[in-house]
Design brief:
The protein has about 375 residues and is of the alpha/beta class. The chain contains 14 helices and 16 strands. It is globular, with a radius of gyration of 20 Å. The structure holds pyridoxal-5'-phosphate (PLP).
């Protein structure tokens, strides 16, 4: 395979994928690789889910695209299903295309509404590659940011440091942005007490709490969102990845007191909220609810926690199918060795964490396969 014309910006795995079936990737050399990574947490329903495919085909035949200048029933239905699924009192949706774009819009709104110029983010957090999202991403400035300056003031808060919250979040703060379970950092649950303290301080200081659930959302933790798991009501929430389960789309959900500030032309996008994306968002919510997939995630995540601390794995962390396997040896070696045994997992920002972002449709046999493969690896 030649890739001479692609930007050389991605490290790539030794995996020549030509197709997929259920929860397996099919390779050119006829391997069936169990996919416990799902393309960075996207393939929540695995591959070729019949109802996902049917929704795609039906919408493509009915109406491929119309912009937001045209009211569409499918868009209204997707917004209703999504806000009901979330159940967090975030009753207004702005559909966009990617996680970074959702965060970009959330921060823009917070800065504009409050008239303040500072955003607080959490050490270890990842929010995307655009100007605002990159500015609140931990380590981006040193590694890849590229813009001459951040578009607003940024201060990072150490994870779990309850005492620092009151010092860092104040009357100058427009928003606090946090992944309730950090993904790229290695499946790190910020925990209920820390998130509750952030919520309380934001309310006190008149700042918006923005939860970035691009990776942790849409059932991945075994709850609609990690916000539900921890009983935290943010002012805004962003989600993407599993939202379309393979169809690219994202959403910014907001509470009434945020949406009340919006007027025509404040936000916009061509592709966001397109009928294809909306049909698949509606289908994904429908499938998650009707097939009991959140319960499956909770049950099997528990099995992973109970059985997969074996071989090089010394502990687990995270929540649901945003699970980190803490390894005694470098995670990249364990990840490679699992791939040699036909199991795809991911690494993370933590060199000793292998990340599991499994499709919600796996069963006990797949957990057993992971456990057996880990047990066979050198400790
Ligand atoms: C928590 C979180 N936020 C934002 C993003 C950026 O999303 P996208 O790549 O769709 O822009 C990611 C991507 O990994 C993410 O994990």
């Amino acid at each position: 395979m030649t890739a001479d014309h692609l930007a050389p910006v991605y490290a790539q795995w030794a995996l020549d994928v030509v197709g997929a079936e259920g929860v397996h990737l099919l390779t050119r050399d006829n391997r069936r690789v169990l996919d416990l990574y799902g393309g960075h947490a996207v393939a929540a329903l695995g591959y070729s889910h019949p109802r996902w495919l049917a929704a795609l085909e039906q919408q493509a035949r009915a109406l491929l695209f119309q912009s937001n200048a045209v009211p569409l029933e499918v868009r209204a239905r997707a917004a209703t299903r999504l806000t009901r699924f979330a159940g967090l009192g975030l009753d207004t949706v702005f559909f966009v295309n990617s996680g970074a774009e959702a965060n970009e819009n959330a921060l823009k709104l917070a800065l504009k509404i409050t008239g303040r110029r500072k955003v607080v983010a959490i050490e270890g957090g990842f929010h995307g590659r655009t100007a605002a999202a990159g500015a609140v991403t931990w380590g981006a400035a040193q590694k890849w940011y590229g813009f001459p300056q951040a578009p607003f003031d940024v201060e990072f808060l150490p994870r779990g440091d309850l005492e620092a919250i009151a010092r860092v979040v104040g009357s100058d703060t427009a928003a606090v942005i946090a992944e309730p379970v950090q993904g790229v950092a290695g499946a790190v649950d910020l925990g209920q007490p820390f998130l509750a303290a952030l919520r309380a301080r934001c309310s006190e200081a008149g700042a918006f709490l923005v939860l970035d659930e691009v990776q942790s959302g849409m059932g991945r933790t075994g709850f609609p969102f990690a916000a539900n798991m921890h009983g935290i009501a943010p002012d805004m929430l962003t989600t993407a990845k599993a939202l379309g389960a393979g169809f690219p789309c994202a959403a910014l959900l907001m509470a009434d007191h945020v949406a009340a500030h919006l007027k025509t032309d404040d936000l916009g996008t061509t592709f966001g909220g397109g009928p294809m994306a909306c049909a698949l968002i509606e289908a994904v919510v429908d499938i998650l609810e009707s097939e009991g997939l959140l319960a499956n995630v909770r049950r099997l995540a528990q099995q992973i926690r109970e059985t997969c601390v074996t071989g090089p794995v010394v502990a687990t962390q995270g929540a649901g199918f945003l699970t980190g396997l803490r390894t005694r040896r470098p995670a990249k070696d364990v990840q490679r060795e699992l791939l040699e045994r036909d199991i795809l997992t991911g690494t993370s920002g933590d060199p000793h964490v292998v990340r599991i972002l499994a499709p919600y449709v796996i069963d006990e046999s797949h957990v057993a396969q992971l456990r057996d493969a880990l047990a066979a690896l050198p400790a």
